[in-house]
Amino acid sequence: MAGAGGKNLNLKLKVWKQKGPNDSGHFLNYDANGISTDMSFLEMLDVMNEDLISNGQEPIEFDHDCREGICGTCSLVINGEPHGPDKGTTTCQLHMRRFKDGDTIAIEPFRAKAFPVIRDLIVDRSAFDRIIEAGGYISTNTGNAVDANAMPIGKAEADEAFNSAACIGCGACVAACKNASASLFTSAKLSHLAAIPQGQAERISRANSMVAQMDSEAFGACTNTGACEAACPKEISIENIAVMNREFAISSLKSRK
Amino acid sequence: MSYFSSSIGRKQIVGICGLGLSLFVLTHMLGNLLVFLGPQAYNEYGHALTSNKLIYIAEAGLLAILIGHVIYTVLLTIRNKNARPKKYAVTPAGEKKTNFAAKTMIYQGVVILVFIIHHLLTFKFGEEYEVQYGEVIMRDLYRLMVEVFSQPIYVVWYVIAVIILWTHLGHGFSSSFKSLGFNHPKYVKKIDTAGCIYAAVVCLGFIAQPLYMFMNN
Amino acid sequence: MSKELSSNEPTGPIEERWQSHKFNMKLVNPANKTKHSVIIVGTGLAGASAASTLAELGYNVKSFCIQDSPRRAHSIAAQGGINAAKNYPNDGDSVFRLFYDTVKGGDFRSRESNVYRLAQVSNNIIDQCVAQGVPFAREYGGTLSNRSFGGAQVSRTFYAKGQTGQQLLLGAYAGMMKQSANKKIEIFARREMLDLVLVDGVARGITVRNLTTGEIESHSADAVLLCTGGYGNVFYLSTNAMNSNVTASWRCHKKGAYFANPCYTQIHPTCVPVSGDYQSKLTLMSESLRNDGRVWVPKEKGDKRHPNEIPENERDYYLERIYPSFGNLVPRDVASRQAKFRVDEGRGVGPTGVAVYLDFKSAIEKKGEAAIKDKYGNLFQMYEKITGENPYKVPMRIFPAVHYTMGGLWVDYNLQSSIPGLHVLGEANFSDHGSNRLGASALMQGLADGYFVIPYTLGNFIANTELADVDTNHEAFKKSKEKCEKSLQKLLDIKGTKSVDYFHKKLGHIMWEYVGMSRNATGLKKAIEEIPKLREEFWKDVRVLGENNFKNTELEKAGRVADFLELGELMARDALNREESCGGHFREEHQTPENEAKRNDEDFCHVSAWELKSEEKLDWVENKEPLKFEYVKLANRSYK
């Protein structure tokens, strides 16, 4: 199991096990021995699972896919921190060199009423899809577009839009927020589309309908604690939330609905 | 969707009311600084305020703001608590941990509300001593203050409550601006700094008064 | 037995073919479109763009993905960019040049008409994406920015930092969500396609497993679009996402869809090297890095000095030396093979000796660290997270890894497979990249298929086909459902001793060793012997724990690995059959004295489309589609 250049760790894991959405769930303790510091956190879980399977025990279920920090599938709250201790990092990019021999690591799912647990560490984040469905788009049918350079957009605006659009929709903001608020997620999309000229036509209705959808899911409200920004693996700025608040207030004044 | 039933609308109402209350506590603190000039200045200031008929409108307005602040906070808190029925086993300790003041606003608020009620009962609805300056008879609030602040237990409670108010204002002031949509790299630091200075000035001003009274008696 | 396949491509001057084909195809009138339904499997660039566009046109779309949200399909991980023949930089680009580069880059094993169409619609894609709000990189004046990629001498790649795939996919996903709000798309997430359902020989539906509840569901429609990506994970280690798999394609293959050129796999030259046997996947470092990074190894064998201690004159910048005109920007197959040669010579670097350096020192000296950070910041950060080394100070260590599969289900010019009604889009089909794909062309192809090709050709299919009323009560759906339930139960009932990953890793090892970056007859024969043995062992000894009626990742993996164990054999057979070297397929027996790929146009200027004759015996027949090169003359590919 040793890596090319790393050392080995012996760890204690305390992992949340929950059979399904209606099960109450509990922690189970595991020993993870001989873990190379060059492994990623998820590779450590892979190794654990291989051990469990060879002992006839059910493996730990966790969500993951691209393992390069962009798909937003991986989750996990590691020692109370969504995506673990490193800032600007998804769980799949977290490496075991971050831990010390003998550490105890608590692994929990993202906890929020709006993210029901499917099994063990896997949660259902479809609430995010419904928020986007409510207005997180620019309505333009294929084939309608004018030449891409017909509408110049300053580099600063384009970069600003990109920074908000970089959200991977992982839900760490919800997991980190004491109120399980989806404000950072929703606001990142609103800011992205508010920053560029293409997004102006639907700007008023967008803020209203996306916030309404966000509220109709079981998310809490923002209290500006900044936990979301600190936990965000893409370091999406909390400024976006102020943008959303502004957009929403203006939209409430202007909207005829 | 109605603005008043949306999470952001409610948050903004809490913020606006909070800023209104912030303005009030600042003027309250500044007015109270008159205690340092002695009983007459202080009592005359109190009399001038209470004898003006407009005071009822102001008090009603203030009460409405307070109620707005509290009710919408309670509604949001219920929503927020419901959003996470199951708590985490571990609280973050590293770089991702959150500011204590920001995390505990609601608890600070509860203490402050208890303090406000107690404070009103002690002073506004407290013992009605009288004093005469020239021809005018007025309430001797100064005497009441001297009496109250001669009790160490009250001073301690007062100081603790004001320190909690300090943390509440420290987060609340700048947070209100953010809820209202003011957060931009150009000025956000300035708002944060202004919030810190404001909270410190108000609370040090408040704390100075009972301590001064306690020391002088 | 073997058939000659017709591509159904239009004739006439190449620049007019798509235009005239569009005119000649039948249309479905707007009111009738709303009466037709389409199943789209997969929500990557091809699937999402097809779903939103067909829904806009009025079709009722059912969209399926294995991820928890359509937004997470693996297109999201594409880093570098998307090509288009806009010629904004005024450096001599044109539709014809993009077409020419792609045909040449594909080593003359793609269909000219398809590639020309791809180049033609490339510009519309950029317009469409900008209209959707995709935040492409821009110049200070507000116009779009371009960069260069391998295999081209013009700058035609549009990008959004190192996250172009993410931004394009989110654009297409947003379009989908709008149509979902309009009730024109019904989204089924966490569903895995297990079978294609044919009624009267036409693809009329699919059988899927709900990955959350384990339930087997049937869905019917008037046509099925497969947009399920590539099969690189047959190698176990690849840059694909962990859940990327061949199952949907393979089950269609078993129902009669031909599998074309399975041996064409792309090995990407710039990936983070393997660090240990626990490794679960390989991480790509965008090809765009080769714009500024210089590839080198020490001149001496076994030089174990720290890279910063090796002086300039003791370094071999081998790509610049061998290919002076393209330098570090040679196509992927060439760069990968050269890296392998260096390692085989014993000049590999790093703790394992299986890597080469990608050095940014001179770019940092020339342009400054800030400029490099602005361009590649997120990639450098990612590298540092994985390796713990700072690439601003120490050269990156890179090594090739499986990245993309040019092979896939055979489709005609209309993107229809050999099964009527089954259309295949994006990486899942074989069509546009020949035997080697150029960088930034995968995004282009996925979106071209979904936004601009299938909306026309699907209409033509529907207008020309008598579609009987079929729903899921039809016997064929019931049979398919039973079959799927049985095969899942079979996996659970084996109760063997070895995990699914054990078999997957073993298969990956065989594939990499014998069907990897360079192949020879002996090795391929060995693979053809070993894989069936492993397959047999799998069906006797795999251990899949848990139940079928809960989320069960091991059960999902088991089904996928079972299919990889069959695909692997076909890949080896195809590679053995193709007695030539072309693009990503390098047969050691067929190389020039300078170790370049040597094609055999006389005997192999065709597509090999494999038809499964017997599912039990895994018996294949090769059908051929001859390739004609009328516009780009067959020539030796040279990047010197």
Helical fraction of chain B equals over 70%
Q: If helices are DSSP runs of H or I spanning 4 or more residues, what is the number of helices of chain B? A: 8
Shape of chain C: globular
How many E-type strands of chain C? 20
What is the name of the CATH superfamily of chain B?
A: Fumarate reductase/succinate dehydrogenase, transmembrane subunit
CATH architecture of the domain at 268-401 in chain C: Alpha-Beta Complex
Q: Average pLDDT across residues of chain C?
A: 96
Number of helices of chain C: 17
Which percent range describes the beta-strand content of chain B? under 5%
> What percentage of amino acids of chain C are in beta strands?
15-25%
Query: What order do the strands of the largest sheet of chain B run in, or round the barrel if closed?
Result: 1-2
- Uncertain regions spanning at least 5 consecutive residues of chain B: none
Please write the CATH class name of the domain at 268-401 in chain C.
Alpha Beta
Span between N and C termini of chain C? 43 Å
**Overall 3D geometry of chain B?**
globular
Largest interface: A-C, 85 and 87 residues
Query: Over all CA atoms, what is the radius of gyration of chain C?
Result: 24 Å
Content-based structural category of chain C: alpha+beta
Gap between N and C termini of chain B, in Å?
A: 58 Å
